[in-house]
Design a protein that fits this description.
Blueprint (H helix, E strand, L loop, with lengths): L1 H5 L3 E2 L16 E2 L1 H7 L5 H13 L2 H12 L11 H9 L9 H17 L2 H10 L4 H21 L5 H6 L13 H12 L4 E8 L5 E7 L4 E6 L7
Antiparallel strand pairs: 1-2, 3-4, 4-5
Helix pairs in contact: 3-4, 3-10, 4-6, 4-8, 6-7
């Protein structure tokens, strides 16, 4: 119930009083909650996907949701850590500052390499320390999420797209990265943090002190691309 409330899927009751007794205010599904109840996905991911479809930036958010539901496609061999990190950062642009967008750029580049044949795909993955198995899993999950949105009425299937005139309304803003970041934040809220202090512990390790939306401080050690931009 707490999760459903946090994503805006419930309305009408009093926060914290999930079991209604007597004449207390009853909980009911909000409009967003009604749509989420028809989608067999995590509530926060479902909300993020709905926002992306409505705001026209669905394609990159499909990749982000699929990556979050799988694992990172980036490999980090112990004996080639520096090379792997450089390859990873090569997909990032100066203003991105986002591991989510980094995954989108890597996935899109893999799709292009894959379209040229198996030899190009293998060379691309080897040169960029990427897991082709994980990327294929992400591709499958993207399609599954897209099918869920089509069934819920938020996106068109391939046949309807071919018949429709004009641009695909679900992706008219897919190159607007500010909007994509806003959709990620709005969809995953309150699971977001603000980076307050970054500390470099060594050449290959760094940490940051973060404050989450619930005003709780935490120490986060990572190899995020955000630390190197």
């Amino acid at each position: 119930m707490e999760v459903l409330y946090s994503v805006g899927a419930l309305e009408g009751g009093v926060k914290g009083r999930w079991v209604v007794e007597g004449t207390g205010a009853a909980w009911q599904l909000s409009d967003l909650g009604w749509h989420l109840s028809r989608m067999p996905v995590d509530a926060k991911l479902g909300r993020m996907l709905i926002y992306a479809a409505v705001l026209g930036c669905l394609d990159p958010v499909l990749t982000i949701a699929a990556t979050m539901s799988s694992r990172s496609p980036f490999l980090l061999p112990f004996d080639k850590r520096d090379q792997a990190n450089r390859a990873k950062r090569s997909f990032s642009k100066p203003r991105d500052k986002s591991d989510h967008i980094l995954a989108v750029r890597a996935y899109d580049a893999w799709v292009q390499a894959k379209s040229k044949g198996g030899r190009h795909e293998r060379a691309f993955c080897q040169d960029n320390f990427l897991s082709s198995t994980t990327l294929r899993t992400i591709s499958d999950l993207r399609q599954q999420f897209c099918d869920v949105l089509v069934d819920a009425g938020f996106a068109r299937n391939a046949r309807d797209k071919r018949r429709a005139q004009g641009p695909d309304v679900s992706n008219v803003n897919s190159d607007n990265w500010r909007l994509v970041r806003a959709v990620i934040c709005a969809g995953l809220y309150p699971n977001v943090v603000c980076v307050c202090v970054c500390v470099r512990a060594s050449a290959c390790a760094c940490a940051c002190v973060c404050v989450c939306a619930r005003a709780r401080a935490c120490l986060w050690t990572c190899s995020s691309v955000c630390m190197h931009v």
